[in-house]
């Protein structure tokens, strides 16, 4: 059975999805939708080069009245997610909505509630947990090689935010803030790795280097470019996020460390190396997790977009529930928003458990 896809949002992430759909068996692209002419033009050319012949639209309602895809991938700006997803929930389509679920926790909570009753798959695009080295790392943590995890540390040293159409990603009001826009990935990973829920967040951060000389209609960007975030979890484990977005010269962009009573296990991206360090000093063990070159070349997420799409399509074909639900998406947004609030207030922010 071939799954037909439409992509709403033909910018950078939409095109990454296109390249990965071309690698996926039994997938075809039947429609593209984006209000920006240049984005539509670039994506149309890429689609043709990939062997797809999608119909192209500037309006979502026009697309939905013309084509009937099995699934719609939404890769539009954060502040548009709520309205687009609510519109798609009225259709008989599966939905893969790129992170974050919404720009605000209130909208994310409302959308998660709506998605519960959706008869088709509603999936939130949390790519990082699908990076092959990270997925293998999570397996080993869950096998309790370190013992039960007590401390978790995630570090991302990376490049600044990229330019986007209309410069929408320069302002908190559009993104939800850096700790929602960028770091919902990491808050999702914390929950997945620890298999627990957060109860309190404390954060410190600022905008110290990036975008300081930029003006948009006389307004300076207000997005953070660095932060430390500490998250306390219900069963007592603690997690720390260290984010720096002016460290593009780093050899490893992302590293994750989990520590328990028997030792420490860590993974680094892009090296794909996993290192286990036992407390008894019996010797380090190293495992290298590779990603095929064609999958690496299809995107900027170390193979995660392909593996996420493969898992999404598997759920559709087999009638299984989504691996990353709207509730998962909401919780990641709530953690990021609490971290943003903690920086503004200088105080810890409690997080209530909501099912």
Written overview of the protein:
- With 355 residues, this protein is α/β, with parallel strands linked by helices.
- It contains 12 helices and 15 strands.
- Helix content is 34%, strand content 24%.
- The protein has a 9-stranded mixed sheet with strand order 14-13-12-11-7-10-9-8-15. A 6-stranded parallel sheet has the order 3-2-1-4-5-6, with helices on both faces.
- A hairpin with a 3-residue loop joins strand 12 (263-269) and strand 13.
- The longest helix has 20 residues, at 326-345.
- The two termini are 34 Å apart.
- The mean pLDDT is 96.
Question: What is the structure about, briefly put?
Answer:
The chain has 355 residues and is of the alpha/beta class. It is built from twelve helices and 15 strands.
Helix content: 25-40%
| Gyration radius over CA | 20 Å
Secondary structure tally: strands: 15
Number of helices: 12
Distance between the termini: 34 Å
SSE layout:
Elements: E1 3-8, H1 12-21, E2 27-33, H2 37-50, E3 55-57, H3 60-66, E4 71-74, H4 81-89, E5 94-98, H5 105-116, E6 122-125, H6 132-142, E7 151-157, H7 172-175, H8 178-181, H9 184-194, E8 198-206, E9 226-233, E10 238-244, E11 254-260, E12 263-269, E13 273-278, E14 285-288, H10 293-297, H11 304-318, H12 326-345, E15 349-350
Parallel strand pairs: 1-2, 1-4, 2-3, 4-5, 5-6, 7-10
Antiparallel strand pairs: 7-11, 8-9, 8-15, 9-10, 11-12, 12-13, 13-14
Helix pairs in contact: 1-2, 4-5, 5-12, 9-12
